[in-house]
Amino acid sequence: MDVRLRTNDSDCELALCDVIPQDDHPSYGCRLLVRSAGFAADRPFWVERSVVAQFLEQVRAMDRTLTGRALLQPLHEPDRVELELTRTGAVVVSGELGYAPSDNHLKFSFITDQTCLRPLIAELGRLLEIDAPAV
Questions:
Q1: Domain ranges in the chain?
Q2: Which of 15, 70, 77, 109 makes a 20 to 30 Å CA pair with 48?
Q3: Would you say domain 3-130 falls under CATH 2.40.30.20?
Q4: Whether 75 contacts 48, CB under 8 Å
């Protein structure tokens, strides 16, 4: 499954591609894809289920209140992606990705708008629903 932020700009992209729940840990493994004005990263990314659930709630609150921030950052890794909704309805997408042991590092930022939040909310919700433990 892919979780993609729609951006209304073909030169800007943010996606969690090929998301797979990890059997041995309550987390997801995927490829994090970022494209921002000519800069790009396509790399492995692991993030805890609880972090994804919290990110979803933060994005829902942004959509509901038209203000706020949402942070997607694994608990034990420095990589991060952040969405911030401005007063004008713009969503600033930013983040930093690093790769050890080399010095590869990408700091990115681009702008989309609040109409892109609801499709992201739906995709994150489907991901968590698919992976929900049976009751």
A1: 3-130
A2: 109
A3: no
A4: yes
**CA angle 99-96-16, nearest 5°?**
85
Q: What are the angstrom distances between the C-alpha of 25 and each of 9, 18, 29, 54, 56?
A: 35, 17, 10, 17, 20
The pTM (predicted TM-score) of the whole model is 0.91
User: Cα 118 to chain center, whole Å?
Assistant: 13
Residue 43 identity (one-letter amino acid): R
Q: What is the pLDDT of residues 24-39, one digit of tens each?
A: 789 999 999 999 989 9
- Cβ atoms within 10 A of the Cβ of 23, count? 5
Cα(75)–Cα(37) distance, rounded to whole angstroms?
Answer: 28
d(CA 90, CA 113): 4
Low-confidence ranges of the chain (pLDDT < 50): 134-135
